[in-house]
Amino acid sequence: MASEIVFLITEQRNKQRITLPSDRGAYRFGRSAQCEYVLRRNNVGDRQFTIACADGQWTITDDSSDCNTWYNNRYLTAGETCALQPGDVIGLNTDGDAATQEITFRVEEIRTVQGSVEGPRQEQTDAAVLREVDIRRKKRVLIGRGDDCDIKLVSDRVSRHHCEVVYRDGQFEVRDLGSTNGTYVDGVRISRTALRSGAVINVPTQVFAFTGGLLHYHEHKSGISVQLLNVYKTVQDRNTGKPLNIVDGTSLEIEPNSFVVLVGGSGTGKSSLLTCITGTDPCTAGSVRFDGLETRGNRNAFDAVLGYVPQRDIMHDNLTVEQSLTFTAKLRIAHDASKAEIAAAVAHAIEAVDLTGREKTLISQLSGGQKKRVSIAMELLASPRLLILDEPTSGLSPDLDRSMMELCRKLSHQNCTVLMVTHNMSNINLCDKIAFLGVGGVLCYYGPPENLHSYFDVELTSDIFEKLRVPELVEQYRCQYFTTPEFNRLAAAWPEAAQEADKRCDQSN
Ligand SMILES: Nc1ncnc2c1ncn2[C@@H]1O[C@H](COP(=O)(O)OP(=O)(O)OP(=O)(O)O)[C@@H](O)[C@H]1O
Asked: A Pfam family this protein belongs to (predicted)?
């Protein structure tokens, strides 16, 4: 009988579940690229430990000669094997302090499964629930925001009856039902088309994968994840005529419903990286994924999940907040929305940006910070699952900067994933992660704000900007990033991200 073991891996604030099926042999954990689960950390051996299953019994074996593996309440001796059961904890003390375990692997569950199961799986924590609908059995699956739909999507961008997937005479077909914002199959807007196995269907805020007569989808609570894998933007240098990387091999993962701030000195490629993510000027190499799905070729469809707040506010001064938002709502919300639905969406957006009580105020009478909130509310009308803000706090007073950061934090935890570009570091502790770029478009740090100063070994944030102007230091921090938990979690899920690390940096250092 096959079985699988579920580990909850905890490292700093990050949590991740992995499921290892028993019929795939042993799973090696360690620094080496040959391991099934690569852990590029200090004080981790090339092969640290192995998890395996024989005769229904899961075990851990310590493989490392010089770095110890913690098991429940003691260290294993080199080569020792122990049986695993739910509740057991494996720990690694990557900072070298024997008293603390920086990464823990807790056995959550060992379960028997029928037949064979597919390879190691990453499981999202709390972000999404995987659903599937059997089209052959139902014959017709109606998708939309109406109460009578088989798959009901809660977004004003989705039409009441948006599209349907039907099965007739052995054929599967998807038909758009005259929706406002479109149905896409493999990145192309369709009115009706036959479905092949493996097709990807997009409607606003939702992606479906169609295989073997089943429609699979993640029922999202709100924000999406973004994966950047070896992302490059190469341009022709206007001075030398030679190729120049202005985004230079960036790999990182933005977790669902997190608030990430992108910082870096002037000209370090922040805007260029943003345009790779928004797709307005796509990357020249590498991959940008939303919820793990490649966005290249699917750009139109993925636009639906994106909200972009530009640096300059674009609104009519002589309209009130409510008029302005109602005007935008009529353009963005599905055309079959009733007046009451539009009014509710506007009220919801106003409340989300804490402007309740200002509905009747003219835009011209708002402060800079309030205007920015209206710009954000305009994007929220479209229920984005990723909100990108380009320097929303530039030109604002310090107290407004704080309230803007607090708003972004709130939105990220309630509505969507938030990515913000900023120069202002004073309230940076309010974000979940900082992506710090150095000269030449190199990602030098990606991690929580509380580790920033120790990582760069500085007391003042301004010293980081100084350091990241020096190309040699930038290269040093590029490689240091490849040893961090954030990068290793990404590389474990997307091994191609490690290729760049292996190419750029000698991992034995
Ligand atoms: N064709 C080109 N030739 C040479 N350099 C270029 C070319 N195109 C862009 N660059 C450089 O690429 C870098 C990245 O620009 P980008 O606008 O993305 O940086 P940024 O971090 O957003 O800057 P800022 O904070 O000043 O807005 C800049 O240094 C820019 O001068």
From this structure: FHA
Q: What does the pLDDT look like over 335-369, one tens digit per residue? A: 777 888 888 889 988 988 889 999 999 999 998 88
What does the block give as tokens for 225?
A: 């994840």
In angstroms, the CA 172 to CA 263 distance is 47
For residue 257, what is the DSSP state?
T
pLDDT of residue 122: 42
Ligand 1 in reach of 275 Cβ (< 6 A): no
Domain 2-122 in this protein, CATH class: mainly beta
- Domain ranges, ordered by start, for the chain: 2-122, 130-218, 226-305+384-506, 316-373
Interface confidence: ipTM more than 0.95: yes
- Ligand 1 atom closest to the CA of 275, numbered from 1: 18
Tell how far the Cα of 131 is from the centroid of ligand 1, in angstroms: 43
- Cβ(492) – ligand 1 distance below 6 Å: no
3 state SS of 368: helix
Residue 237 in contact with ligand 1 by CB distance below 6 A = yes
Residue nearest to atom 10 of ligand 1 (CA): 246
Question: How far, in Å, CA of 122 to CA of 489, rounded?
Answer: 10
Which residue's alpha carbon is at the smallest distance from atom 30 of ligand 1?
267
Span from the CA of 71 to the centroid of ligand 1 (angstroms) = 50
Nearest CA to ligand 1 atom 6: 237
Q: What is the best residue among 272, 273, 474 to mutate for testing ligand 1's pocket, by most ligand atoms within 8 Å of CB?
A: 272
One-letter identity of residue 366: L
User: Residue 187: which residues within 8 A CB-CB, separation 6 or more?
Assistant: 200, 202, 297, 298, 299, 300, 301
CATH number of the 226-305+384-506 domain: 3.40.50.300
Q: Which CATH number among 3.40.50.2300, 2.60.200.20, 1.25.40.10, 2.40.50.100 corresponds to the domain 130-218?
A: 2.60.200.20
pLDDT digits (tens, 9 = 90+) for 359-418: 999 999 998 889 999 999 999 888 888 999 999 887 777 777 888 898 898 888 777 899
Please report, as a single letter, which amino acid is at residue 451: N
Choose among 249, 317, 239: nearest CA to 285: 249
pLDDT for 435 beyond 60: yes
For residue 82, the model assigns a pLDDT of 92
Per DSSP, 247 falls in state E
Element (H, E) at 8: strand 2-11
